[in-house]
Amino acid sequence: MKHVVRIPGPLRSYTQDAAQVQASGDTLVELLAALDRAHPGMRFRIIDEQDRIRPHIRIFVNTREMPTLATPLAAGDEVHLICALSGG
Amino acid sequence: MSNTLWIGTRKGAFTLRSDMQRRSWRLAGPQFLGHIVHHVVQDPRDPRHLVMAAKTGHLGPTIYTSADRGRHWQEAKTPPAFRKAREGEAPRAVERNFWLSPAHASQPGLWYAGTAPAGLFRSEDHGQNWQPVSGFNDHAMFSKWASGQRTPDGELLHSISVDPRDARHLYLAISIGGIFESLDGGADWAPLNEGVAADWLPDPTTEYGHDPHCLIVHPQQPDRLYHQNHCGIYRLDRPSRRWQRIGDNMPKKIGDIGFPVVAHPREPDTLFVFPMDGSKVWPRTAIDGKPAVYRSRNGGRSWQRLDRGLPRKQAWFTVLRQAMCSDATSKLGLYFGTTHGEVWASSNGGDSWRCIARHLPEIYSVTHAS
């Protein structure tokens, strides 16, 4: 199923400046893989090589923060990629 | 023919360009504004190619490469990354790409990268795809050599150096961890720290665990190595394995603490350092606010203060390990970038200095490109 994904400013170099894209997946794992196929390189900037969400990134499904990628997605879910504060 | 300096800063990359006379410099940039750029290095084997180590505050680390002298850049397809952790292992993830070194002249396109936390990586395609060097990253002693002792910027693997006579003879340094040598292209490694002080450790004769800040192998006399350590300035003449503390010959009120060390490209006995204040709480500033380069022309047996043109007082910057370099001209050009965003240049081997750029972000690296 397809989901709306909100893209923060620091990642828009991967989406040709689009603030919102669509990606398919039944879980966050699948959705991030689909995002990376469509926008190569994006996943590694937010997920490390051990499949952990990077320290200054947060992922929300609708209004709930997801601490891990093992999250099933339901029809109509909207995914927000958030860049958290990281200093000056 | 022109001179180019690539300036890596906390907020992006800049260039300074001059003609061969080096009278005036033109600043351009920033490129990748807002990115933390630790190193930008031109390939001496093919000057069209450059590699840049970058990240942003929020996003994970990556590498950018250029095949047209820095006019256009593309992101690496596979940036440096550790292999997946096996069961029971502590997972490792690259936090920043810190150091870039081209490999041997006989290995076009081959590069090495050092990361924080400590990791060694290689690319065979000008930096587009990177693989871990398992001979180091998975060495049976790795967890001892790179034990996770973090400097303020993390545990840094740097100063990857290749013997110009032998592509398989490699050196690297970890801050904190020590200096290590490989004779087989990186398949196996051994510590090379004999004679180096580690004042803060309970066992000062330890085999590893030292804090080298910058290591260089002289390009024309590769048996001559220098290194600036957290605990002094050292020289090693191979095949000896015992470092000599040539920093003991510095003036006592200056001491021998600093980050960078630069060798004269044609005179193995000539080297340059930028001392900083390593007293008491380690202010890491120019000593007494009076910055100076120190030069030795006899392999560290004596040193000469070089401060003509530099601020005479109240200048509290320092120079980080990648932020000092030379060019290769007959009247040697020397350059350093400061933590306060200034670039200083000498066109007479350090005898006098002038500021060629100011008001840049904190400078992490200055490298020369032709």
Helix proportion range of chain A: 10-25%
Strand order of the largest sheet of chain A: 2-1-5-3-4
- Secondary-structure-based class of chain B equals mainly beta
Low-confidence stretches of chain B: none
Features of the shown structure:
A: 88 residues; Ubiquitin-like (UB roll); five-stranded mixed sheet; 2 helices; globular; B: 370 residues; mainly beta
Structure explained in plain terms:
The complex is a heterodimer of chains A (88) and B (370). By secondary structure, chain A is α+β, with helices and mostly antiparallel strands. Chain A has a single domain (2-83), classed as Beta-grasp domain (Ubiquitin-like (UB roll), Roll), CATH 3.10.20. Helices cover 18% and strands 26% of the residues of chain A. The radius of gyration of chain A is 12 Å and the shape is globular. The N and C termini of chain A lie far apart (39 Å). The model of chain A has no long low-confidence stretch (mean pLDDT 94). Helix content of chain B is 2%, strand content 39%. In chain B, a hairpin with a 6-residue loop joins strand 10 and strand 11. Classes of the chains: A alpha+beta (88), B mainly beta (370). The interface between A and B is medium-sized, with 20 and 19 residues.
Write the layout of secondary structure elements.
The complex is a heterodimer of chains A (88) and B (370).
Chain A: E1 2-6, E2 20-24, H1 28-38, H2 42-46, E3 57-61, E4 64-65, E5 78-83
Parallel strand pairs in A: 1-5
Antiparallel strand pairs in A: 1-2, 3-4, 3-5
Chain B: E1 3-9, E2 12-18, E3 26-31, E4 36-42, E5 50-55, E6 62-66, E7 74-75, E8 96-102, E9 111-116, E10 119-123, E11 130-132, H1 134-137, H2 142-145, E12 156-163, E13 166-175, E14 178-182, E15 190-191, E16 212-217, E17 224-229, E18 232-237, E19 258-263, E20 271-275, E21 293-296, E22 304-306, E23 324-326, E24 334-337, E25 343-346, E26 354-357, E27 363-369
Antiparallel strand pairs in B: 1-2, 1-27, 2-3, 4-5, 5-6, 6-7, 8-9, 9-10, 10-11, 12-13, 13-14, 14-15, 16-17, 17-18, 19-20, 20-21, 21-22, 23-24, 24-25, 25-26
